[in-house]
Write a structure and sequence with these properties.
Blueprint (H helix, E strand, L loop, with lengths): L1 E3 L3 E3 L5 E9 L1 H4 L9 E2 L10 H20 L8 E5 L6 H6 L7 E3 L6 H15 L3 E8 L1 H8 L15 E2 L2 E8 L6 E6 L14 H20 L8 E4 L3 H14 L8 E3 H4 L3 H4 L5 E2 L1 H17 L5 E9 L3 H5 L6 E9 L1
Parallel strand pairs: 3-4, 5-6, 5-7, 8-13, 11-12, 11-14
Antiparallel strand pairs: 1-2, 2-10, 3-9, 7-9, 10-15, 14-15
Helix pairs in contact: 6-7
Amino acid sequence: MKKIGKQTIKFDNPPTILECNSIVGPKEANGPLSKYFDKTLEDEFWGEKSWEKAESKIIKENVNMLIAKSGINSQNIDCVFAGDLLNQCISSSFGLRDINLPFFGVFGACSTFVESLSLGAICVESFANYVLCATSSHFCSAEKQFRFPLELGNQRPPSSQWTVTGSGAAILSKEGCGPFITHITPGKIVDMGIKDANNMGAAMAPAFSQTLITHFLDTGRSPNYYDAIISGDLGYIGKSIAIDILKNNGYNIKPNYDDCGVLIFDKSSQDTHSGGSGCACCATVFSGYFFKQLRERKLKKILLIATGALMNSTSSQQGESIPGIAHAVSIEL
């Protein structure tokens, strides 16, 4: 691999995304992408006593399903990259504590899935034969931690998004016929001073735009190189802001650009306001929908840019603004 431009890494022997798997909750199961997910749940607890325990079970079962689907002996997996939204990433570490594999806990907020893919691809290019990348989120646990306990029945403003309940996971390999991770563009932290925890799209859109522009400049590519440019969870508001920022910088991404948070729910019938969000938003939509589109060759080149709001409940209570981050992976056949 080699660095090109300011921030992008190009892989001389691009790692293959060998297999993906996804589990989603009941609201996601009623959305427009329902048929693409590998497993859907009937309730948010899934037989557990708390939402946090349910989230750990979701990522555990998703990883086990992925390993079984891939046909790879789990002991041949060199390492796991995983993370989530809960404090100290407890969903991932508790859920995967019995997996008996080298484990890297990763936190990039809602950008965690692509951050894991990026780090995993670097490992595959250097020493690993197989790397597993996974993440999860849960609407109920996230609302309790970042905003208000559900028992209070607080009214959600129109700019708010619905944290996706679910888990997405992928296995990367040195071998295989694609789709391949050909480039990664790690993002920089961008903070425009937004403090509203119910307007994540506006907080993350500038970071998405900066990473995308950097990717174009580093690679010499333009928006029409890709069949699809996909952001992780900007939602309707963030998506609109991103289109405007890119347009002001000379890039028209509107014809082939969409957002996982826009795609996963039906805004009109599911009352999700500005769309979906959370670590599992990007992870499940890619693992469930876009990976299958690539496998079926309906898409051949996509740029997946996961977005994250790098804040927690403590920083919000202390009046801090919300820094944004966005990481990009170029996935091609």
